[in-house]
Amino acid sequence: AQRVTQPEKLLSVFKGAPVELKCNYSYSGSPELFWYVQYSRQRLQLLLRHISRESIKGFTADLNKGETSFHLKKPFAQEEDSAMYYCALNVKTSGSRLTFGEGTQLTVNP
Amino acid sequence: SAVISQKPSRDICQRGTSLTIQCQVDSQVTMMFWYRQQPGQSLTLIATANQGSEATYESGFVIDKFPISRPNLTFSTLTVSNLSPEDSSIYLCSGRTGNGYTFGSGTRLTVV
Questions:
Q1: A94 touches chain B (CB under 8 A)
Q2: Which of A36, A49, A100 sits opposite B99 (nearest CB)?
Q3: Is A2 exposed, middle or buried (0-12, 13-18, 19+ CB in 10 A)?
Q4: CATH number, residue A8
Q5: CB contact under 8 A, A46 and B48
Q6: Would an 8 Å CB–CB cutoff place A50 in contact with chain B?
Q7: Are B21 and B6 in contact (CB under 8 A)?
Q8: What proportion of chain A, given as a percentage, has pLDDT over 70?
Q9: Which residue of B lies nearest to A100 if distances are taken between CA atoms?
Q10: Of A69, A100, B69, B81, which residue is most buried, by most CB within 10 angstroms?
């Protein structure tokens, strides 16, 4: 079965520092990967989708099939980036069901 | 992208009763999903709500406990039946859209 691993439950950085949130998945086929963000008291929002290859709020993520990873990166973290981040995997043969990682709580300190 | 209105946003229920959660989408979505998010944990899929047919439940979730309706492509309900304190959680609905999945704002259920 497919699985998503986010090894860090908590991540704390200072404003202006680079940040990387790790995501590894287990699936041998072609995955569809997403990053979702949940700011305090707000609903889950789509941040990035690997197919689109775009940068949102300065975040980027590259799918590395060899390492089965989809790490989220931002060169200069801002305080407003503090939130819970979830990596999610859709395996189309599973009926478009999303499998979520455990989430990483990012705190950006002033 | 689609917007999902979910209600109620929170409720406190007596054990043994039931709570029905509604999700209304502002456009048609072919696939809708219901999740549970227990305190401090990630999202766990309960079931896929299929329009015109029975929902498809994940392992560990059964129709008698979590009946789901999907009468059309813009609406779905989840009922959590015979409530116990272990059902205290956040419940979310989601719809598959063109570029991903959109989520409701969640229902925080407390069972007393």
A1: no
A2: A49
A3: middle
A4: 2.60.40.10
A5: no
A6: no
A7: yes
A8: 97
A9: B43
A10: A100
